[in-house]
Write a structure and sequence with these properties.
Number of domains: 2
CATH superfamily of the largest domain: Fumarylacetoacetase-like, C-terminal domain
Distance between the termini: 42 Å
CATH class of the largest domain: Alpha Beta
Number of helices: 8
CATH architecture of the largest domain: Alpha-Beta Complex
Number of strands: 19
CATH topology of the largest domain: Fumarylacetoacetate hydrolase, domain 2
Shape: globular
Radius of gyration: 18 Å
Strand content: 35-45%
Length: 290
């Protein structure tokens, strides 16, 4: 039996559904939401994951139908989504390159004990697999940031991982670090999915993160990075996120990017971004202006 995955999808007649994928079949779960499942998993993550494999009822929709009708919903509902910054050397270099003042602040946070953590999105600004991510209409330099995302329950126990796209307006953040929320938080600024791989862990998955960007059917950028290049430990980021903070519905944390397109590259409307994290999943999103 394959490792179960959690998903949310839009049923053509029954509305939004919370379900699991087991052996390439979809099973609707008894919990009403991901938030409920995460709450129920506190203190018993392994048992909750084991129950997923036998607790559902077979869905009337198939994976092929979800793909063909773009019915995937982001695998999040009532969770806040947070993000980590400058966790890779390449990210530190890129932030310094774009910063109008030289970006000394990014060099300092890369070496500091306390990591950079910032609020990224709620459900209203998050899109799922095959839905369009946004680029700001008041920005001229926009890029995707492919990232491994950690999924945690209210006790900050890691239950699994998913694929994230932390869309970013480089010219806005580069003009002034205090503009970070505007560069990062806006309509359709976060892509997530397509599923949550249920895999509790206290360390990074040993895997590659890969991205390709297509324009008019032709690849215009591709790159990859291994998760071993993340400077911070998993437990370090989780621990700082949980300091003086509570997440009653669970929380999702994007862990930073080690892939940055060249300075002369910006996304165009109609581009298609594909992110694959080997062993975790894939996420594809076209681009629109918002």
């Amino acid at each position: 039996m394959s490792t179960p995955r959690l998903i949310r999808y839009q049923h053509p007649t029954d509305g939004a559904k919370f379900a699991a994928i087991v052996d390439d079949k979809i099973f609707d779960l008894p919990e009403a939401s991901l938030a409920e499942w995460l709450q129920n998993s506190v203190g018993k993550v392994s048992a909750a994951i084991e129950a997923v494999s036998s607790a559902g009822t077979t869905s009337s929709i198939t994976l092929e139908e979800l793909d063909s009708n773009a019915q995937w919903l982001p695998p999040s509902d009532e969770q806040e989504i947070w993000a980590s910054g400058v966790t890779y050397m390449r990210s530190r270099e890129a932030r310094q390159e774009e910063a109008e003042d030289g970006g000394d602040v990014y060099a300092r946070v890369y070496d500091a004990d306390r990591p950079e953590l910032f609020f990224k999105a709620t459900a209203k600004n998050t899109v799922g697999h095959l839905a369009a991510v946004g680029i700001r209409e008041d920005s001229k330099w926009n890029v995707p940031e492919p990232e491994l995302a950690i999924v945690m329950n209210p006790a900050m126990e890691v239950v699994g991982f998913t694929v994230g796209n932390d869309m970013s307006s480089r010219d806005i953040e580069g003009a002034n670090p205090l503009y970070l929320p505007q560069a990062k938080v806006y309509t359709a600024s976060c892509g997530l999915g397509s599923s949550i791989l249920l895999a509790p862990s206290d360390s990074w998955p040993d895997t590659d993160i890969r991205i390709s960007i297509a324009r008019d059917g032709n690849e215009v950028f591709s790159d990859s990075v291994h998760t071993s290049r993340i400077k911070r430990t998993l437990l370090e980021l989780v621990g700082y996120l949980g300091r003086s903070n509570t997440f009653p519905n669970g929380v999702i944390l994007l862990t930073g990017t080690g892939i940055v397109p060249p300075a002369d590259f910006t996304l165009n409307v109609g581009d298609v971004i594909t992110i694959i994290i080997d062993g975790v999943g894939s996420l594809q999103n076209p681009v629109k202006v918002v």
